[in-house]
């Protein structure tokens, strides 16, 4: 009752021992079969009218056969003394007020429920009698632009005259020039809908007159006035477009194995995740991640230590939330088969449908998606983008020297050749997944595809039912060949010619990861920039050999391009600012760095790009990356002469925790003044990039720290800052080995684009395939390995 953090039964004792806080409120919901009256009528579902808790109720228990009773009491530790609530007589007024506030408060997760959020919006008073001008305006499905400026995002359609104008400070915090608001002030037309948010379920509508987001119950009619059919916009989770129903049904049935009777699985490792509304991308990735032993050991294996030394607010700690989720998935506590008596009762009632509730990842999703514009929304997302986002979080929050994401990391050798001089340049970069293009030209059923396309067009023209879908069959070998073929380099600057020239690039593996993640690049953009999906079947192998893709380095007879950097082109209006000040490395704009890193560029390269472009934003830094990405030191840590050490704040994330990471003496002095050893303070700072607060957390989470003799010698021998600054940084951590792999998991997507549809995951456990479809976990009968999107391979020991 001090921090208002909630704990389960098995963790509340740990919190009491750790903090000494002794007063806790116990909240329980008792669910039981409903007792019926003499006439057979149903009695009230909630039996305790004094306590009304806003708790999640299992949807399976919302029938007329069940009722529930809420109970609340204060528990005083360590004696477990209980005081039933409400209890005005025995409790001080302040405690009573606090208890009443907790009991009457709404669940914070209601805010994340899109249906609840939508229902709380008021209906606009202008919706019923909205005037719409008959001016012939028709809104195209794409290519929108503000009518008063060149902005192409955050655009709003005025529902009276069809004007498309940019927003400014609306409720979604998007930027703009405010032309939609200016238009309202000029005309008085009250309602506007945000383009890009329209789905068959509704859209974001704003009322200028009422100055708040609203609901428009006649939105479909108002949009149809301007030629927009809501049913043709992309759907939500498990939703389909009208004109896609026939071709998509087969895909959904095949991937979810809907035509077969699947046996539910229970026990450790067979726990599902509840869908929070378009959260299946997260569920599928996390199921695959926690099937990997290195992640199991790093988090669930270290559960006592992580929980014991977690921050005072564990809801804001990545490692705590990862451990909590992993424990929920792997412990088996939340995946227990129904007892025999329940099964018999279900058979008698002819309702033999074993229910799997799964666990809710609400707190985990809230934390990992915090401050991310896409993952923090309730829209569907790309599982591959979330996978990289998660790897980035693991890198930034590693537990001491242990980093489970090392199993995915590998080095890519890129060979670029100047077509005029035939000279070459070899560079290496870090990557975490292999992206394979879809070689459509290699389809083995081209004649069937041509015939299907002709029948489809004829059916559409005559408004007849579409023919049965014919899916392109692509050999995996063709995709692998397309990956290894040379590609043209746009705007290549040849250091041999000191000018732009034609260049070709080939990529090979400089190292092979322990776990290889392969993405089939099924998603692309059409000519109208609408996301589209290649509906293809790829014969993915169970055993994969990519040893022939091993990099060979500079070959005899090859001549390297001169090591000369191209000139940096800086906008004229920014030159004075850039030249007038030298940025301190600690002042680098980390938001721009992370924005670039999530595009797939190495973290160190992103930091250098932001530094050398003077914190002028991600766009200018991106241009620097394009110019410099072929340089041999492209991904090496940023080192600034005169600062006495490597300036990279992310150096420790890539293993640079040695001589090039000497912490400032003033921060060391602060920690030692608290009673900690100097060597302990230095090592903590070096592990957390000189962040005082994180270093203290590191010390508390590493109680087993012992003074390392080698570490002491290293510090004594390198007390001179100049020597430290000249030390060669440690390279990226990779676990190289054989290029032979075995498939153990894959994630599949159903739908027309990453903005819609549904994800499921198949994992091979104990010699059999298991399908994870949100909260449902079943033995797979026909795993659709040819329709996957992301594939997870483990190395076969040589």
- Biggest sheet character: 8 strands, mixed
Given the helix and strand composition, which structural class is it?
A: alpha+beta
For the record, the CATH class of the largest domain is Alpha Beta
Q: Using only CA atoms, what is the Rg? A: 30 Å
Hey, roughly how much beta strand do the residues contain? 15-25%
Number of helices: 24
Query: What global shape is seen?
Result: globular
The number of distinct β-strands equals 24
Helical amount = 25-40%
CATH superfamily of the largest domain: Cysteine proteinases
Low-pLDDT ranges: 37-50, 59-63, 111-119, 169-174, 234-249, 347-353, 570-582, 641-660, 706-729
CATH architecture of the largest domain: Alpha-Beta Complex
Whole-Å distance between the termini? 56 Å
Question: What brief labels describe this structure?
Answer:
Cathepsin B, Chain A; Herpes Virus-1; 6 domains; 798 residues; autophagy; alpha+beta; 18% strand; globular; eight-stranded mixed beta sheet; five-stranded antiparallel beta sheet
């Amino acid at each position: 009752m001090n921090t208002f953090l909630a704990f389960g039964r098995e963790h509340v004792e740990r919190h009491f021992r750790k903090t000494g806080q002794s007063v806790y409120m116990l909240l329980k919901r008792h669910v039981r079969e409903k007792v019926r009256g003499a006439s057979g009528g149903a009695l009230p579902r909630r039996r305790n009218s004094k306590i009304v808790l806003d708790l999640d109720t299992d949807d399976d228990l919302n029938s007329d056969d069940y009722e529930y009773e809420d109970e609340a009491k204060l528990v005083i530790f360590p004696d477990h003394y209980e005081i039933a609530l409400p209890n005005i007589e025995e409790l001080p007024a302040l405690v009573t007020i606090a208890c009443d506030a907790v009991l009457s408060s709404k669940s914070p997760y209601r805010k994340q429920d899109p249906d609840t959020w939508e229902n709380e919006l008021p209906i606009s008073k202008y919706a019923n009698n909205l005037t719409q001008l008959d001016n012939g305006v028709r809104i195209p499905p794409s290519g929108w632009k503000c009518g008063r400026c060149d902005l192409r995002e955050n655009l709003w359609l005025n529902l009276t005259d069809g004007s498309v104008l940019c927003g400014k400070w609306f409720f979604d915090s998007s930027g703009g020039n405010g032309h939609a608001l200016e238009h309202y002030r000029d005309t008085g037309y009250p309602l506007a809908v945000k383009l890009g948010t329209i789905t068959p379920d509704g859209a974001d509508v704003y009322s200028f007159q009422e100055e708040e987001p609203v609901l428009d119950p006649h939105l479909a009619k108002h949009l149809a006035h301007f030629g927009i059919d809501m049913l043709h916009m992309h759907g939500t989770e498990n939703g389909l477009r009208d004109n896609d129903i026939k071709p998509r049904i087969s895909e959904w049935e095949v991937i979810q194995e809907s035509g077969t009777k699947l046996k539910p699985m229970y026990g450790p490792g067979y726990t599902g995740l509840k869908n929070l509304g378009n959260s299946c991308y997260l569920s599928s990735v996390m199921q695959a991640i926690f099937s990997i032993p290195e992640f199991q050991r790093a988090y669930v294996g270290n559960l006592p230590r992580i929980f014991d030394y977690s921050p005072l607010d564990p809801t804001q700690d990545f490692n705590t939330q990862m451990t909590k989720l992993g424990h929920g998935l792997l412990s088996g506590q939340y995946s227990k088969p129904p007892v025999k008596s329940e099964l018999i009762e279900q058979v008698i009632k002819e309702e033999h449908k074993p229910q799997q509730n799964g666990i809710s990842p609400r707190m985990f999703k809230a934390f990992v998606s915090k401050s991310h514009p896409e993952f923090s929304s309730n829209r569907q997302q790309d599982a591959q983008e979330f996978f990289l986002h998660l790897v980035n979080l693991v890198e930034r929050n590693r537990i001491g020297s242990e980093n489970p994401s090392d199993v995915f990391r590998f080095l890519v050798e890129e060979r670029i050749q100047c077509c005029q001089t035939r000279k070459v340049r070899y560079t290496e970069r870090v990557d975490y997944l292999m992206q394979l293009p879809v070689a459509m030209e290699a389809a083995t059923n081209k004649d069937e595809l041509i015939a299907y396309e002709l029948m489809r067009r004829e059916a559409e023209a005559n408004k007849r039912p579409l023919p049965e879908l014919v899916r392109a069959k692509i050999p995996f070998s063709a995709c692998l060949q397309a990956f290894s073929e040379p590609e043209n380099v746009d705007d290549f600057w040849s250091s041999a010619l000191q000018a732009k020239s034609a260049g070709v690039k080939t990529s090979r593996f400089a190292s092979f990861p322990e776990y290889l993640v392969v993405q089939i690049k099924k998603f692309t953009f059409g000519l109208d920039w609408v996301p589209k999906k290649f509906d293809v079947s790829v014969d993915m192998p169970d055993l994969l050999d990519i040893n022939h893709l091993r990099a060979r380095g500079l070959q005899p007879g090859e001549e390297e391009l001169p090591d000369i950097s191209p000139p940096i082109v800086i906008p004229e209006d920014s030159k004075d600012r850039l030249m007038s000040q030298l940025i301190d490395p600690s002042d680098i704009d980390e938001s721009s760095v992370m924005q670039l890193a999530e595009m797939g560029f190495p973290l160190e390269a992103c930091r250098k790009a932001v530094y050398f472009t003077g914190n002028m934003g991600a766009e200018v830094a991106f241009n620097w990356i394009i110019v410099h990405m072929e340089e041999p030191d492209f991904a090496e840590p940023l080192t600034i002469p005169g600062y006495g050490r490597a300036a990279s704040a992310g150096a420790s994330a890539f293993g640079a925790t040695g001589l090039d990471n000497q912490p400032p003496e003033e921060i060391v002095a602060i920690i030692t003044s608290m009673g900690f050893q100097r060597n302990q303070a230095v090592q903590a700072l070096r592990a957390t990039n000189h962040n005082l607060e994180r270093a203290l957390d590191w010390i508390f989470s590493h109680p087993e720290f012992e003074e390392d003799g080698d570490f002491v010698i290293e510090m004594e021998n390198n007390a001179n800052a100049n020597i430290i600054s000249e030390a060669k940084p440690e390279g990226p951590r990779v676990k190289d080995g054989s290029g032979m792999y075995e498939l153990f998991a894959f994630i599949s997507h159903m739908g027309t684009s990453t903005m819609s549809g549904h994800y499921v995951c198949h994992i091979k456990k104990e010699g059999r395939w298991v399908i994870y479809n949100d909260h449902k976990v079943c033995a797979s009968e026909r795993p659709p390995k040819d329709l996957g999107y992301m594939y997870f391979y483990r190395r076969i020991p040589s």
